[in-house]
Amino acid sequence: MVLINSAPVAYFCSPHKTYLDIAAFLGLYVKLPLTLDLLRCLLLTAVLFLGPLVRRLWLDHGWRELRGDVGKVFTTWIGWRNYVAGPFTEEIVFRASVVPLHLLAGRSPGTIVFLCPLFFGIAHIHHAYEFYINNPNRVVVMIIRSLFQFTYTTLFGWFATFVFLRTGSVWTSIAVHSFCNFMGLPDFGRVEGPKWRSAVYFVLLVAGAFGFYRLLWPLTESQHALARF
């Protein structure tokens, strides 16, 4: 998969670049600074999910089930697909393979961030057909579900593409993708129990979004960036 999807970039780069240069351009090169970039981007993503993290680990006492949840990543096929194989293959295709081609075409970083994730969003529309096969009389629901899924996958794609360009590492995008899959979409319902629990949760949702906004640029700064904004 990596070789097939990387072949076009390698072909266009090969007359002027070494194999290590091509690997770095694809975000496949691994060095210590890139590992630090990965950890910073995971921290940034955790800040965005501050509310859901606190809810899962404290307000809902989910820390008791955390070990089992993590264990499912490596002991079930669904966990392996959602948190390992899925993020790896999708980031190789939609970040490491698609983004460098647009860079070679001379597109601006801003255009790449907003354009490339559309392919990622469209790639998930096939779920609409699966839903239709099982629910042929619920066409309106199918359309709403598909538009919603296209929206949030595209939004994530913007973030993943931004991270890829800013850090020059597809491994960072893979880690962020896996973490987001593990967390899922935030729950905007009230927390069970006393009202203060819900108040804390919603305050942390806002605080997490604000913290993400303030830390987006500092925590994605890297000397290995593929493009400068």
TrEMBL record:
The chain crosses the membrane at residues 155-179, 199-217. It comes from the Eukaryota. It is found in: Endoplasmic reticulum membrane. Its main location: endoplasmic reticulum. GO terms for biological process: CAAX-box protein processing. It is an enzyme of class 3 (hydrolase). It is a multi-pass membrane protein. It catalyses: Hydrolyzes the peptide bond -P2-(S-farnesyl or geranylgeranyl)C-P1'-P2'-P3'-COOH where P1' and P2' are amino acids with aliphatic sidechains and P3' is any C-terminal residue. Its EC number is 3.4.26.1. Residues 75-183 form the CAAX prenyl protease 2/Lysostaphin resistance protein A-like domain. Pfam families: Rce1-like. Keywords: Endoplasmic reticulum, Hydrolase, Membrane, Protease, Transmembrane, Transmembrane helix. One of its GO terms (molecular function) is metalloendopeptidase activity. InterPro entries: Rce1 (IPR039731), Rce1/LyrA-like_dom (IPR003675). One of its GO terms (cellular component) is endoplasmic reticulum membrane. Belongs to the peptidase U48 family. This is intramembrane prenyl-peptidase Rce1.
